[in-house]
Every structure is written in C-alpha cells, then in structure tokens.
Amino acid sequence: RSGKMAKLTQLIDNEVFRAYATYATIVLVKMMLMSLITAYFRITRKAFANPEDTASFGKGESAKKYLRTDADVERVRRGHLNDLENIVPFLGIGLLYALTGPDLYTALLHFRIFAGARITHTFAYLIPLPQPSRGLSWAVGYAATISMAYKVLKTALYL
Amino acid sequence: RSGKMAKLTQLIDNEVFRAYATYATIVLVKMMLMSLITAYFRITRKAFANPEDTASFGKGESAKKYLRTDADVERVRRGHLNDLENIVPFLGIGLLYALTGPDLYTALLHFRIFAGARITHTFAYLIPLPQPSRGLSWAVGYAATISMAYKVLKTALYL
Amino acid sequence: RSGKMAKLTQLIDNEVFRAYATYATIVLVKMMLMSLITAYFRITRKAFANPEDTASFGKGESAKKYLRTDADVERVRRGHLNDLENIVPFLGIGLLYALTGPDLYTALLHFRIFAGARITHTFAYLIPLPQPSRGLSWAVGYAATISMAYKVLKTALYL
C-alpha cells in the first residue's frame, strides 16, 4: 500500500499539478456557488420550477402563482450554464496541459488568467456590469483554454 | 511499451483510485440514463424541440402541434441539468482528492455518500417525492464535494 | 524538479494516453466552437438574453425588442447542451478507461468513433439533416462511452 501511495502522491507533489489542482478546485467551487445564489433568488423572489417546491405556500391557486420564471433567477442560471460551458473544457484541457510538463511560470499564468477571467465574468453577469465587461472576461478565459489546447495537441497529438 | 503500461496501471491498482473510478463511472452512467428517460417522455408525450423530429407525424400543422414543451419532459431535463451542475464538480474535485492520498475509509465514505445522494436526488426529482427530499439529497452531495475540495486545497494549495 | 517532471511526462508519453489527450481536446474544442456559433447567431439575428447586451441598439423600447428568443439561436444552444451532456461522461469515463491499460487499437477505435459521432451530431443538428441522422450519431457516441464504462467497471470495480 504505502509504495503505491507514494507513487500517487508524486503527482500531487509536482508544482504544476498542484497549481492545476488549486485553480481547478477554485473555479469548480465558484461554479457550485451559483447553485446557492440561484436558491437564494428562488426563495426571495418566490419563483420556483417544481410544484413540490411551492407546497409550503399552501394548495391550489395560492401556491401555483409561485411556479414562474423571474428575471434575477434566470440571470443566475444563464451565468451557471456559461460556467459549465467554459469550466468543463478548462477542467479537461487544463489537466492534460499540466501533464505535458509545461514551464511552471507559463502554467501558472494560464491558470491564473482563466480563474481571474471566470470570477470577473460572474461579477459582470450578476451585478450586471455594462458590456463589454462580460464579453471580454468570457473571451479571456476562452483564449487561455485554447492556448492550453494548442500546447496539448502540439505535445501529445496521436490521431 | 510494457514498462510504461506498468506505470500507468499502478494508478488503477491503487485502491482509493479504483474506488474513485468506480463511483465516478456509476454517477456518470446514471447521468447518461437521463438522456434515455428524456427520449422516452418525448416519444410517449409526443413533445419535441426540433421540426425534423416530428416529420414522421406528417407535414404542416398536423406535425407542428408536437413541437411543444411537456411538464414531464421538462422535469427530467431539469434533473439532467442539476446532475451536470453537481457531477462535474465531483468529477474534477474527486479526482484531485483521490490523488492527495486520502485514507481509503474516508475516501470511500465521501464517494459512497455522493453517489447515494445523487441517486436519491434523481428518484426525488422524477417520482417526485415531497420536499425537502430533493433539497436534502442535493445538499448532502454538495457537502461531500465541498469536504473533498477542502482536503484538496489543504494538501495541494499552490497559488 | 526534473525527476518529478520525468515521472509526469511518462503519462503523456504513453500512446493510449496520448490518444485520449488528442481526442478529448478535439471534442472539447469542438464544444467550445458552439459558443462562437451562438454568438454569431445572436448578433446576426439580433436576439439577446440580457438587457446590457442590447444597450448599443439604443434605449427603451427600441432596444427591448432585441430581448427575444430566435429559432436558430435556440437550435445551437440545444446542440451545445447536448454536447455537455455527452462530452462530460466521455471526459471522465474516457480518462479512466485510458488508465485501465486497454489495447491501443481498441482504445483508438473507441476514441475515434466517439469523436466522429459527436462531429456528425453537430452537423446533423445545425444544418439540420433529416432524422434519424442526429439520433443515430447521438446513439453511436453514447454506445462508445457505455462500452468504455463497462471496461472501467470490469477492471477497477471497488465498491
């Protein structure tokens, strides 16, 4: 057992891999926060998607009126879906990139830019900030991921 | 070749990693089942999203009426999206957690609780069970993921 | 440092792992293209989801009319969500499958079929091609993922 464990922990001892683990966890936890923000707006705006969620407001018509969409809830949900669309590629491509043995400085640059861009994107979406704040922060995270994808394909290409 | 393969299979021989592989595969296959359930409800409720999907029902107005939303279809789709929002963080954070070399018992506890919570969540959503069944099962899976994220950041933090 | 780096690059030197890295990156970049196609249709069809996105069209009613859904935009968004639902399982199960030490030929077959099926699915969705083109391409990618999941569970099962 301990021999195998030592082998495994070699991966997590590598600085580039540790940086990936840190930033991947940060953006995933940030994405998870979107669920809490959605729940917060659903409860304060009284806007639910399922009949069983409104049962505590009584029966029949009095509860049915809370089965509705709300602009604030929908905004958070769009931000959450945009996270999924962008953080899933980072998760996969970033992991493969970390395994191509990049320079620590370059790797940190990619991970920090991506995480910073996604956090900015969330604020730009939720406040909301005037465009092109949201568009630009989205594009910066996108470009960081494409740059890592290029490195992965250049290093590992095997079709 | 065989030397490299041996190195690779060391990862899959590690018990914590095997447990991660097992539970990650189980929750991903469970999520994939949502596609089949959506298809089942789309066909039995005759509720489609694309004109080309209703072509077999004839042309013009007779087919157009099947381009509609259906409460059962939308329910499964919400469950599917909730899976994506929660299983993606588990996939990434769980993998990194498995690589931090946790105690086998603790790791199994996290993986089993997460998988059990997500399976319960699916039943709670699709039957549906009265609240707070769905809310609680969601929260239990969420907490298991956050607990693993904490361990990853404590072990690997490199900003 | 260099010793650890050497260990890490052993993973990316493995041919099966390189094949996984290549095809995972290809399907993730393909999925990322859906964001650009959505943006293209939102701009050309003038159909936006957020008030701040229409500010450049003026204020009040003149801008508000561009806050609307458009059939082409919604079609791309459904394709994008279908990608997420299918590429996330491939990302996780494919990685674990690559670590079970499969035969290179068999692994390449799985990865190529999956990537080919998803690229076909995108064309079938966006053109759109008459059914069952989209349904079949979806099913082929689904079957390739289930086949890899079976191999992972057969090799690594640890409940």
From TrEMBL, chains A, B, C:
Reaction(s) catalysed by this chain's protein: RX + glutathione = an S-substituted glutathione + a halide anion + H(+)
Pfam families for this protein: MAPEG (PF01124)
Keyword Endoplasmic reticulum: yes
Membrane topology of the entry: Multi-pass membrane protein
A GO term for molecular function: glutathione transferase activity
Keyword list, A-Z: Acetylation, Endoplasmic reticulum, Membrane, Mitochondrion, Mitochondrion outer membrane, Transferase, Transmembrane, Transmembrane helix
Subcellular location: Endoplasmic reticulum membrane; Mitochondrion outer membrane
SUPFAM superfamilies, per the entry: MAPEG domain-like
Its EC number(s): 2.5.1.18
Top-level class of the enzyme under EC nomenclature: transferase
Transmembrane residue ranges: 20-41, 87-115
Gene Ontology CC entries for this record: endoplasmic reticulum membrane; mitochondrial outer membrane
Function, as annotated: Conjugation of reduced glutathione to a wide number of exogenous and endogenous hydrophobic electrophiles.
Subunit composition and interactions: Homotrimer; The trimer binds only one molecule of glutathione.
Family indicated by similarity: Belongs to the MAPEG family.
Protein name: Microsomal glutathione S-transferase 1
Gene name linked to the record: Mgst1
